[in-house]
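Protein: Amino acid ABC transporter permease
Species: Salinicola rhizosphaerae
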Amino acid sequence: MDKQAASNIRYRQEDTSYFDKRGLSRYAGPWSLWALGVGAVISGHYSGWNLGLAIGGWGGMVLATIVIAIMYLGLTFCIAEMSPALPHTGAAYSFARSSMGPWGGFVTGLCENVEYILTPAVIVFFIGSYLGSIFETPAAMQPVWWIIGYILFVGLNIVGVELSFKVTLTVTLLALAVLVVFWISALPNIDFSTWALNIGPGGEELPGGGGPFLPMGIGGALAALPFAVWLFLAIEQLPLAAEESVDPKRDMPKGIILGMITLIVSASMILFLNPSVVGVGAYALGQSGEPLLDGFAAIYGSGLAKVLALVAIIGLISSFHTIIFAQGRQIYSLSRAGYFPTWLSITHGTRKTPHVAMIAGACLGLVIMLVLFVGLGVDEGSAVIGGTLLNMAVFGAMCSYIAQAASFILLRKHRADIPRPYRSPFGVPGAWVTIVIAVVTLGFQLSDPTYRIGILGVIVWFAIAIAYFALVGRHRLILSPEEEFAMERREQVQKSTTDDGTAVPGKS
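Structure follows.
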């Protein structure tokens, strides 16, 4: 049965067999959700954030991290309110669909899709960088490490949600344990002034240290914002597990808030200690693809450091594994509702995991990596290839954050009827702060010529996908749980506001 709504949006109502082929299993409790959020982010404390040191110096990265932490606090409290109120796998798309209609839902989902396709690519890139350093393999072998990583962890995620969450909890705890070992090891081996402040005003190395707090000024701190994002990026993925959570209305707020507290503590420690280790320094870390390995090597020597770095890869594996989980659910939700081709949302017959979506997302991410690898050249270095992928992922994330914060504001204003088991203490002002910081971050991303080409590539992808939705996709939508929730709520509001008490036909 077809239903037609405003803007020529056409829906098809499927029978139970359609959703039987797309079923998920409930398993996750609050600690599983905490591990999903922290595990997704923790690799950013191992690699990626450090590239901002070359742009803003140590002080610039500190200021950038404080600003970005404020943005994420605003965002996570918005999500903590919206996710139990709209407990669907669609997450960001679901929030925007209920507040801004099908077009808003699609564009928001598209932005988040870029983030979840490219973030695993960034992480597996750094996994390859670590493994290449440990086993001393040539740079040309990097794609082999990437392919092995994707095959192993997509396969693990396909096996089943219970195993996936158990692995997530285990590797997240191990990843945090490795960081704690590094913190304890680093504390007696730091010289902050000599090594963390060894970048001069022009970006040159100061061998004796003692450089300025902001060697590139406030502009450098603002330019470092995209790299500070890497210390928190993907904590927002928790609502993607809503339909696999035992009690999302109770557990989602707990999981995401506890996760954010954990990440702030960890980010503060790594930002202070890693550049301060004697023999490392902010200047060298600004060019490094494996900063934690550099820190271990300076403390324990290169031989033992390689053993420790092999253990340290657990942090990267933790994020890679959990974001592949999120990637699959994000593609699954948009496909189940018809925004993406519906065959992508078919779940495994016995495992009840979105295996098709995970395989498709992994293949697309791998193709993008190989294009960059060939286009930029084998000898271009991790700072450019990894930084380009990182900035592309951050660009999609920032657009998604703006849309999610806007959804929060609109839902507070126009959909007060939705029951909210949890309410953000920051309210609408917190959402506006998130939007402002995200917009500023986008502006400084576009101002960096080194990474601009990657961001322009994302914009081209947006244009192609939006054209597809305008011409084809909007005529093939499915009445999925997110869509039905949004339409039914809109009809209830319209009915309650009519003067004569009669129902007004719902419009999406």
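Remarks: The longest strand covers residues 2-4.
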